[in-house]
Amino acid sequence: MRSKTSERELVRVNCPHINKIVKKDSPLAKIESSSFKKQIANSSLHCDNCEARVPRLWICLHTRCRAVVCASSKSHMRNHFDKENREDACHSVFVNPHTLKIWCVACGSELNPFENNGLISEARNYLKTVIRCLQVKRNKSQQSIDQLTIDVPGLVGLKNLGNTCYANAALQCLSNTPALTDFFNYCDAYIPHLPHLPHTSKRPPYKLAEYFNQFVKAMWNGTSAIFTPIQLMNEIKKHNNAFQGYGQEDSVDFLRVVLNRLHEELPYPQNMPGKVSKNGDTFYIYKNPSISTSNSSDNMEDVYGTISSSSSTTTRTSTTDRIQKRQSTHNSVISYLFQGLFESQIKCLHCKKDYLKEEHFYDLQIQIDKKFKFKSSEKFTENSTSSSGSVMGSLTGWLGMSSRVVRLQDCLSSFCATENLTGGDKYRCDKCESLNDCQKKLSIMQLPETLCIQLKRFRHETYFSSKIATHVQFPMEDLDMRPYCKDLSNDTLKITKYDLYGLIHHRGGLGGGHYIAYVKNPIDKNWYEYDDTYVTRKSAADISRLEAYVLFYQKKSPEKDVERAEVLSKIDKDSTAEPSYFISRLWFNRWHFMTTPGPITNYDFICPHGSVNTKRYPRLRDMVVKVPFSIYNTFVNKYGTDGSLPLFSADHTSGCINCEREERKLEQRRRKEDDDIRKIDTNSINRGEYWFLISATWLLNWHYFKSGGPPPGPIDNYHFLHEDGSPKHGMKRGSDYRGVNEKVWSYFEHTYGGGPICVRGTIDLYAPNPLISDHTKHGKFYQKSNGSKNNKRVS
Question: Is residue 200 part of a domain?
């Protein structure tokens, strides 16, 4: 993990009172006392003068003072200061045990030891010790506090916003994924930041990447010991209704939603020649990207032509292929890190036909298979073996209460073993045209850099549900995935060993419980327990004994580690004697943290003309890494290139003339489309006409394009429609779809393509389709009639 100087504006704090306290005894003499540990452990701490409790409590930091006061309307904190504070006894500095904020009543200022705010080093270390001691979770069996290292980044707790421990555990594991953290800290110039638009402007849904970026920086820039992810959680709730309440949810479901959304919002730039339309759009290819800039009314009438049923069918088919191809082929930091590929093979035992299907995954869902318990358990006694056949033994085993142990490798073997599909699980063979007995086998085709394994501990039966409490032995180092892979000649399968760096533990039963994350810090290589706001150091032995629910493994390669150390040492040296090249930070991030970074590409920031679009990428210095020619030549010889030209460090000052010309044309296009739509858009339609429903997300992207963003790409109405054109359940007007008149729809479809067409008599997705009964012998969808306007649109 690289270091980076904080860009926050320094606030100078001159507090002479904390300097007086520093000269006294260590703060541990008070905060680690048995009375405080007991009260904080069972949450019985309250104000000495009233019954006020956290978060309004403040503890006086005078080492011989045991005062716990509140900051309520009675202001017992102020009363304590007025009564006890003297020249030789400073009682003005207080710490909140819940928020871990430190406040000086005399100065009226907050003292944050994690910021460079002018505090002397002795005072800063003193206050850091106070915060770290309060941040460590205490329990009855803990006789001493395992002190946290005060200056290690990443040791930040997350505030529970109401049963959000499932989210906090997943976020802590993502935060401690080195490649992902490095991307948000040092490749943030590639994150699509939104401009400061007026409140009336439409904004595309790119907020999660911004909020996640803020979250990562707060976790690693060392400005606070506790972070409140309220904006991040509110944004995630918009993408999944299950997280909108205050109930306990599944941590794996939350993890999938975050990864899927970040994958959609953070596509790698695609500036390669042939992937860019005539208008200079770099992210999408349009059905008809070039439109006339003429103001001729004849051209306008051509756009508003009546749509035929045959053209609608063609549009829908091409739109489906184009949208699915775009969604499945674009790469992101998420797909490079977490996405693997496995193959499902089903063989009909009657005709011997094989059915193969490849499927991407972010996490492997592994059953804790019962049949391997007897073979892998090494902790059996004669009593436990003999009781396994009894009624009580069978019941406890079914309930998941057995003390027997299985290995993770056995669960993986069961996952990839051949399974017989018989009885009610028979598979329908297309060749035999009947349900036949078949065999099913799963094989891993591509291993991800970060392997996420979910152990399926929750069993749901028809009349009963339970949690499987069987302990699964998992390797802390050198998990070899080679036995579970199919094609070992694949480059991604040359390195198959993994080391554990994160774990999610679920404590409790099926109807409730609590999620806790255990993560290995990439800086000091120590294990830590993240229980919401509490952070406690743990040993590797403690981790190995846990009942794991989700395991996070990082691919390892000692050869790559040696290569990285040698190259980084040469880059850090002063190499002004030889020319330097610019390399994309995205590729450098992959090389720094991944075992298979792929060929060098500079198309991340180089335009298709071989130069730099300075308007689109004004922060070029933040998008590249400067490397000496010898290092660049080493990279080329080992990894190759994708054909992108190297960029000399002295050749970036002037922008691309061709891109500037295309940007001017794009600006003219923005103004023209805005003027054209204003002329034809209406809030009502004539009698006999219909509303055309359109994706609200696509419409927001088009409004963002008007304000200076990239073009929105083809219309994608499959956000609220199934593949057969039927409406999806739970879609809402305004947030999921909106209505436009015929002329606006025709204009958008002619300009961008896409679809499919969805027509209604009112702006209601679930209203009947009027086109079914309004077909005419002329092959038109409907006939326009002039009548009074009686159908108004609600914006």
Answer: yes
